[in-house]
Write a structure and sequence with these properties.
This protein is α+β, with helices and mostly antiparallel strands. Among the domains are: 166 residues, P-loop containing nucleotide triphosphate hydrolases (Rossmann fold, 3-Layer(aba) Sandwich), CATH 3.40.50; 77 residues; 139 residues, Helix Hairpins. It is 76% helix and 6% strand. The protein is built from 24 helices and 14 strands. Strand 1 and strand 2 form a beta hairpin. Helix 10 packs antiparallel against helix 17, helix 13 runs antiparallel to helix 14 and helix 16 packs across helix 17. The longest helix has 94 residues. It is flat and about 170 Å long.
Length: 1211
């Protein structure tokens, strides 16, 4: 990496822009050179610009505390903020570096900062960092983070490495040379990057402490485990076998009693089901008896169904006869009205013919007058067109005269204004002649005033900084005292907490945590067993309920199968009846179709248009295509056929559904039987699981489940009590750990307070030195300010200008600039006004000539317009005497419209006459046809009435109850839907009675089977209550045996767990002991809580290596001195070979000697840090100007000889 160019603008004490180009002469050929200048001139600022442009950082702000400083207005800025390098009184700053990267390419890195709106009083904005390929305006990075990462990649160094190898900061090594041990370790850590060793030392200490605590905890747990003897184990095993044998005997007795209890319970259930079936049958038979009247009515409705066709025929004929008679009357009335209207139409035709002839004669008489009027109209149009053109010419000339006159007036007015302005400008120059030199030299004056104002701002800034530094010095001294007191308080707090931790450790060690955890494990196992037994018991109850449900479902399906058989028999009978009805009505429909085909269809097919009908004689045949009566009858019959066909199909569908359901039930019953057997087997399997889990406990006793719940609650309460005690132990343990953490925290705070105390002491000394420097800078700036103001005084004539400059220079500068701009503007305005005045006078004279020419043309155009107007008036008077003033087109259009209107009305009357004649013929044929239709309906009505009477007479001869015609009609008017609903209701009642009867028979069969089943108890000695008492007693005995067995098994299980736990803990403890020995050895070597032990060792080795590099540089500077480290210390001493190898303290060195030693250290660090990375630049920020001539010559000769081709830049 090689730096090619450094640029900056408004950085700290450097005003404006600066540019240092190492590729141009004379720097291009210089291997070594110095940057010279007085204190505060900005030499170190150039090196700050390099760091800002490359790393967004700079040495002078590294490690500074975040104290706030006042900025512009009410704003503040942190002391360590890099943006404070922006020069006071400026709005933007920039630092840029051009360099060759490690990849061999050239780049340009630019750092910028600015104030808001680019104003001096604006708020500081965030800094910006961009990287560009050299010569390319497009950046390859955008944000600061991206730019920083990219620059580290291009340079090959981070900021810390760069400041140790390429740029060596000011005074670091002089301070390092004479610092105390702790301070020297801190500086060495910063310079060489050995911070990691403190972290390693602290990590070793923390890891060792953690492993030691774990080892102590494992040892305590190992001692708390208690194991049984072999004799105790054998006794417990024998006791467990006896209890198991007793439990099996009790279980056999328990099962026998359960079987008898179940037999009695099933008997009660069957008796209850039988009673319910009897009640259901009685209710169904009662409802069926109550519906007997509706059943008789339904039979009567089905018996009169065959008369429905005659009744429908009679109703339809009556309805059609009435409607056709009314239509005949309306048609005859329409024919009378039509004849009267035809007479009126004939009279209208004659009248319209007379009007057409009259209008044609009058129009022929007007034709000569129309021709003359048209000729005069053309003459008037031409005359008016000529007159209009003459008038337009006159108007245009008048408009031009007005425009030119207006222009002439405005030009005259402008001439007067320009003359007036010229007089005012001459007067203004006469009054302000004294300020002419100031306005002409405004740039020079502004330059002097800007310089003076910048110096004044620097004075104010330094005065503010002086006051701020003085305040900070006072605050630092107060902080120093507070920090001393805080250190004493922190030490006292550490001792108190240490004593409290020892007391808490004793309390934790006395707590019986191992016994509590063993008992907790026993209770957990007991609770799991109880929960498992309760779950199995509940599962058994659910399975038994499912078994009973499946038995009931099996019985229900068997009853449904019997009921379906009955319904299938009834549906077969109904299907036979419906099939007979459907065949009969279909036969009637076919007969009706044949009748219509023989009598009507043949005659209609022979009818032709405009040919007389053989029946009515009409030549119009509107009903030739269809016969309403025949179609209505056929439609009714077809509807009846469809209804009977639908009923027949519905019955067949229902019968098929019932047969499918019958087959389905036949398949379902074996499945249900298998499910019943599966449920029984599942119950037996669950009972077996319960017996295996606890042979001393009954399976199906409700009291047993209650006892299980109580035992579970007791175990849960004891477990909660143990958990509370365990939580108490954990809380104490947590308090102990918290105390340890707080002790560590206070120790770290003490170390930090000690370090802060030392830093504050150094800060107080530095602030006092800075105050004296600021006082000198302020005095020098005031002298330079007075010199700049004296150079401005000859140009300023206002007596108060200097006071105004001090009060508000920006306003004064603005007024001076405005005055100069105004002088220049007035000068230009005067010259421009004279030029415009001459031009306006010439334009005024030219326009006056044009105006006179336009006025002469206006007079000639007025005379021509008068002549044209007289000719137009002559034509208009002649035309007014023709056609009564109307136009030719209007007159012709009027007579044409009259003639056309009369002709149209004549044609309309003729067409209306022809239409009325045709309508009359149609109505006559329609009347004849309607009379024939009425006669036919009358005959059909008489036939239907006769057939209905014959059917009623035949019915009354065989029926038990007589029917009148009115009664028959009222019955036939009942809706078919009501009949169908009643039929379905009667079928449902029959099905219900059949199902109830089948259910009762099934219950009686179940009762007989149950009484013959085995396991029947003795009714005298084994009642349900006595059996339940026996069952309860056995359950209590089983629970007692189970409890004893559980206690024995739990003790044995605890013994096994303790053995396993002891073996596991022993292995873990052995491994932890081995690991503790290893970490303890490492802790003894390098471990410490503060991290200082290993850091001191590593820094000793690092310092030795650094001194070896420094002595190489020191020998090339001078052979007199050699740097050494005091054994087992970080302190340094100097071997003086001219004084017989005397070991001199670094505090006995003179200024020149200290500089040489510090320079050797700086060059040694550069060699040490860059041993694996070659850099072509080295910047040393040290005070070469304070050296005597001999020492300076030694240094320069050494550098010139050693780095002839290595650019080295220094202050």
């Amino acid at each position: 990496m090689k730096i090619l160019r450094i640029q900056g603008k408004n950085l700290a004490s450097i005003a404006g822009e600066f540019d240092i180009d190492f590729t141009a002469a004379p720097l291009r050929s210089a291997g070594i050179f110095a940057i010279c200048g007085p204190t505060g001139a900005g030499k170190s600022t150039i090196l700050d610009a390099i760091c800002l442009a490359l790393f967004n950082n700079m040495p002078r702000t590294t490690g500074i505390e975040g104290t706030k400083m006042p900025d512009v207005g009410q704003e503040f800025i942190q002391q360590g903020d890099r943006r404070q390098i922006l020069r006071r009184g400026t709005a933007e700053a920039m630092a840029a570096v051009e360099f060759i990267a490690v990849d061999g390419k050239s780049y340009r890195s630019v750092w910028r900062v600015w104030r808001a709106n680019n104003k001096i009083s604006g708020k500081l904005q965030p800094a910006e960092l961009r990287v560009y390929p050299l010569g390319d305006p497009s950046p390859i990075t955008t944000g600061i983070s991206e730019s920083e990462n990219k620059l580290i990649q291009l340079i090959g160094l981070n900021y810390n490495q760069f400041t140790r190898t390429v740029l060596l900061a000011q005074n670091e090594f002089a301070r390092f040379l004479k610092a105390r041990k702790e301070e020297k370790a801190e500086v060495l850590e910063k310079l060489t990057g050995t911070e990691i060793y403190s972290v390693i030392s602290n990590t070793v200490y923390s890891k060792t402490t953690a492993i030691r605590n774990e080892w102590k905890e494992l040892s305590a747990r190992m001692g708390n485990i208690r194991l049984l003897t072999q004799e105790e184990i054998e006794t417990l095993q024998q006791q467990s076998a006896k209890l198991l044998k007793h439990e099996k005997a009790l279980q056999q007795k328990n099962e026998e009693i359960q079987r008898k209890i179940r037999w009695i319970e099933q008997l009660e259930q069957i008796n209850q089901s039988k009673s319910e079936a009897q009640a259901t049958l009685s209710d169904a038979q009662k409802v069926q008896a109550e519906a007997q009247a509706q059943s008789v009515w339904l039979q009567q409705m089905e018996s009169i169904e065959s008369s429905r066709l005659f009744w429908i025929e009679k109703n339809e004929c009556t309805t059609h006869l009435v409607s056709q008679t009314e239509l005949l009357r309306q048609t005859e009335q329409a024919l009378s009205d039509l004849n009267e209207k035809a007479t009126q139409t004939l009279q209208s035709v004659e009248r319209q013919k007379s009007l057409v002839n009259q209008y044609t004669t009058q129009y022929n008489k007007l034709k000569p007058e129309l021709l003359e009027a048209r000729r005069l109209d053309i003459g008037i149009v031409n005359a008016r067109q000529v007159e209009q053109e003459s008038r337009k010419t006159l108007t245009d000339l008048q408009d031009k005269i007005k425009v030119h006159q207006k222009i002439q007036d405005s030009r005259y007015s402008r001439i007067l204004q320009q003359r007036e302005l010229d007089d005012k400008l001459k007067e203004w120059f006469r009054k302000n002649r004294q300020h002419e030199q100031m306005c002409l030299n405004i740039k020079l004056i502004e330059s002097f005033l800007d310089t003076a104002y910048t110096q004044r701002l620097q004075v104010i800034e330094n005065q503010s900084l002086y006051t701020s530094t003085l305040q900070q010095l006072t605050v630092s001294r107060q902080q120093l005292e507070l920090q001393r007191r805080e250190i004493e308080t922190s030490i006292q707090r550490h001792n108190d907490l240490l004593q409290l931790r020892q007391q808490q450790q004793i309390s934790v060690n006395r707590f019986p945590i191992s016994e509590l955890r063993n008992r907790k494990e026993q209770l957990r196992l007991q609770r799991e067993r109880l929960l498992q037994e309760i779950t199995l018991t509940e599962k058994l109850d659910k399975t038994r309920q499912e078994l009973r449900k499946r038995q009931d479902k099996l019985q229900q399906q068997q009853q449904n199968l019997q009921a379906l058989k009955v319904r299938l028999t009834e549906y077969k009978k109904e299907i036979e009846i419906a099939e007979i009805k459907y065949t009969t009505i279909r036969h009637t429909l076919e007969q009706a179709r044949l009748s219509v085909s023989e009598n009507v269809v043949r005659l209609r097919a022979q009818l032709e248009e405009n040919t007389p009908c053989p029946v009515c004689g009409s030549q119009s045949h509107p009903y030739a295509a269809h016969h309403p009566l025949a179609d209505g009858l056929l439609e009714t019959l077809e509807k009846e056929v469809r209804q009977h066909e639908a009923a027949y199909n519905r019955l067949k569908t229902e019968n098929a559904r019932l047969e499918a359901e019958h087959r389905y039930l036949g398949e379902v019953l074996p499945v249900l039987q298998n499910e019943k057997y599966e449920s029984q087997e599942e119950c037996e399997e669950i009972c077996q699981q319960i017996k295996e889990l606890n042979s001393d406990r009954s399976v199906s006793n409700g009291q047993n489940r209650i006892n299980l719940r109580e035992q579970l609650n007791i175990s849960q309460k004891e477990l909660e009590s143990i958990c509370l005690k365990e939580n108490e132990w954990e809380q104490r343990q947590h308090q102990l750990e918290t105390l340890q953490k707080e002790l560590d925290k206070i120790q770290n705070q003490n170390n930090a307070l000690q370090k802060t105390f030392q830093q504050t002491q150094e800060k107080v000394v530095g602030q006092a030195t800075e105050l004296s420097k600021l006082q000198e800078i302020i005095e020098g700036l005031k002298v330079q300010q007075n010199i700049s103001l004296e150079k401005v005084a000859p140009f300023m004539h206002a007596p108060t200008w200097r006071q105004r400059w001090e009060d508000n220079y920006p306003d004064l500068k603005q007024e001076l600039t405005t005055a100069a701009q105004k002088w220049q503007t007035k000068t230009l305005q005067s010259a421009e006004n004279e030029k415009l005045l001459l031009q306006s006078v010439a334009e005024y004279e030219e326009n006056q000539k044009n105006l006179e020419s336009f006025r002469q043309s206006e007079t000639e155009a007025a005379e021509a317009l008068k002549k044209r107007s007289e000719e137009t008036l002559s034509f208009i008077r002649k035309r007014a005497r023709l056609l009564q003033g109307q136009t030719v087109d209007e007159t012709e259009r009027y007579w044409q419209e009259l003639t056309e209107r009369a002709t149209q009305e004549l044609e309309t009357a003729i067409r209306q006459k022809e239409q009325l004649s045709g309508q009359s013929e149609q109505l006559k044929g329609k009347i004849t046809q309607l009379r024939t239709t009425c006669d036919q309906y009358q005959k059909r009505l008489e036939k239907a009435t006769r057939q209905l009477g014959e059917w009623l007479e035949k019915y009354n001869r065989t029926a038990p109850a007589q029917l009148t015609e009115a009664t028959l009609i009222s019955l036939l008017q009942v809706a078919p839907e009501k009949i169908r609903e009643e039929r379905e209701r009667q079928n449902h009642l029959r099905d219900k009675v059949t199902t109830a009867l089948a259910t009762l028979r099934e219950r009686e069969k179940q009762l007989a089977d149950h009484l013959q089943s085995p396991g029947r108890p003795d009714p005298q000695s084994e009642s349900l209550s006595s059996l339940q008492r026996q069952y309860t007693a056995l359950q209590e005995e089983s629970e007692r045996i189970l409890q004893q067995k559980t206690e024995v098994l739990a003790t044995l299980h605890t013994q096994e767990e303790n053995q396993k736990q002891a073996a596991t803990l022993k292995d873990t403890l052995d491994a932890k002991t081995k690991l503790l020995n290893q970490w303890s050895k490492l802790d003894d070597l390098i471990g410490s809580q503060s991290g200082y032990k290993f850091k001191e060792i590593a820094q000793g080795y690092t310092l030795d290596i650094l001194l070896s590099y420094a002595n190489i540089q020191l020998r090339e500077l001078t052979s007199r001195y050699q740097l050494q480290r005091i054994p087992d210390e970080l302190a340094l001493q100097v071997i003086d070979h001219d004084l017989c190898d005397e070991a001199r303290s670094v505090f006995s060195l003179s200024g020149g000697e200290s500089f040489l030693i510090s320079l050797a250290l700086a060059l040694g660090l550069s060699s040490f840090s860059s041993r694996n990375h070659f850099e072509e630049n080295l910047f040393i920020d040290e005070g070469f100007g304070t050296l005597d001539s001999e020492t300076l010559q030694i240094v320069m000769d050494h550098k010139a000889g050693r780095w002839e081709s290595y650019p080295t830049y220094r202050n």
